[in-house]
Amino acid sequence: MNLRDLPSVDALAGDLSVDVDLPRAVIVSVARDAIDDARRAVQTGSPADPTLVAARRLRALSSSRLRAVVNATGVLLHTNLGRAPIDDTSTPFFSNLEFDLSSGQRGKRSHYLHELIAATVGAEAALVVNNNAGALLLALAALAGRDGRVVVSRGELIEIGGSFRLPDLMAASGAHLVEVGTTNRTRESDFADTPGTVEAVLKVHPSNYRIKGFTEEVPFSKMPDIARQLGAPFIADVGSGLLDESTPWIDGGPPEWLADEPAVRQVLEQGSDVVLFSGDKLLGGPQAGIAVGKTSSVERMARHPIARAVRINAATIASLTATFEAYASGRAAEIPFWQMATTPVEEIRRRTDEVLRASGANGSIVDGESLPGAGSVPGLTIPTPVLRIDGDDEKTWRLLADHEPPVVAARRDGATIVNLRSVTPDEDSIVAAALASI
Ligand SMILES: *Cc1c(COP(=O)(O)O)cnc(C)c1O
User: Fold this and answer.
1) Which CATH number fits domain 70-86+343-436: 3.50.50.60, 3.30.160.390, 3.90.1150.180, 3.40.190.10?
2) Number of helices and strands (H, E) in the chain?
3) What is the residue-averaged pLDDT of the chain?
4) What is the pLDDT of residues 274-319, one digit of tens each?
5) How would you classify residue 52: left for phi > 0, otherwise alpha for psi between -120 and 50, otherwise beta?
6) Which of 278, 283, 310, 316 gets mutated to test ligand 1 (max ligand atoms within 8 A of its CB)?
7) Is the pTM value of this prediction over 0.90?
8) What is the Å distance from ligand 1's center to 271 Cα?
C-alpha cells in the first residue's frame, strides 16, 4: 500500500457507518486516527489496512459504551459490572436539590439524606460524598490537615482494586503517614509509643485480604481509647458498609459468610469519631462514600473545600435515600443485594433447572459457590447450585456475551459456569434465550 491508496477520512467514515450505530463525530475521529496511523506506517514500511483497523477499533469502542448486562458470574458485588445492583430510581428532572420548599429560600443539598443516615445508624451526624476513597481523602484533609501526622498500623497499608493505595491517598491529602507495628503484628503499645504530636488515628479494615498465622492486630473496639490517649480523633474506615453486625433484616441472623466483617453501627458505638464506608458494597446502594460520627468531626469535613469537589448529584441522593429508607423502615431484605445473597439454595436450584430445561442447552447442575465480591469478606463464599456447560468455554462464553442483552458468565476449569444467584428472577428468561443460542 502507498499513500495514494489510502482512503479519505470521509470515504472511510462513510463505509464504517454502515455497520456501526454511533455518532458520526466518533466514527470520523476513529477513521482519521486509523488513516494517520497508516500514513505513518507507509513511511516505515508496513501499514495495516486502515479500514480493518478502524472497524476493529470501532467495535471495541462500541462494546464499551455503557449498557445493561445480565450478571451470571455469581459475584454479587462485581466491581467490573458496577458493584451493588440497584433498582432503577428515576432521576428527577428538576428537584428541590438545594431549595427549601417551606421557606422558598435556598436549602441545603442532602439535608434530609444526612438526617436519615444519622438516624438509621445511630450517629450524631452524617455526610455523603462521591465514594469511600473520597470520604477518606476528605477525612484526612479535614481532620489531620496539611502535614498533620496520622498513625496507621503497618498491617493496614492496603491497596484496593482500582488504584486505591492508602499511602498514596494519604500523601494526596497532605497528611503525613506515621506507620506503627509490623506487617503481621501491631499491639496497643505500638500506638501508645508514637513519638511527637498526632492529629488523627486511622484504622482501615483490610477488606480484600487476611493475614493468617503469627498475627496480632488492635480491634476497632480498642482504637477510640488509644486515640483519646494520643489526643487525636479516631477515623475508622470499615469499607464494606455492613450496617449492623446482627443483620436484623435477615431471618435467623447473620449468615456464616459475613464472619468477622466490622459493622458501622457497632464501630460507631465503640466511640469512633468518624466511621467511613462505601455505598455500593454490602450496603447495597449506589456508588457513594459515607461518613458518620460526631458532629464536630463531620462538620469539619463538610466545611472543607474537598467536600465541595466530591459532592453527590440528585440521582445519587434519590437512590441512596431509597436504600437508607429501606434499612430505616425494616425493608432492607428487599434491597437487591440482600435478596440475591439470601435466596435459598433450593430456590436457585429450581430456577436453574427451569432455565436449563427452557433453553434445551447441554449442561448439568452442580454444586458451586457465589462470592459477595468487591473485596468484601475474602475467601468466604455462599453455597449455590450452578449450571455447568462443558466444551469450548471460550466459544460458549463469547456466545453468551454476544447475546442481546449480554449475559456475562464465569469460566472455571475449562467449563462455562452460569450462576443465577446474581441474576434476578425477571432475567431468567434472558439467560435461557442466550443459552438456547449455543
Ligand atoms: C472499598 C474500600 C475503599 C474504597 O471505597 P470506594 O467506595 O470504592 O472508593 C476504601 N477503604 C476500604 C476499607 C474499602 O474496603
Assistant:
1) 3.90.1150.180
2) 16, 17
3) 94
4) 999 999 999 999 999 999 999 999 999 999 999 999 999 999 999 9
5) alpha
6) 278
7) yes
8) 21
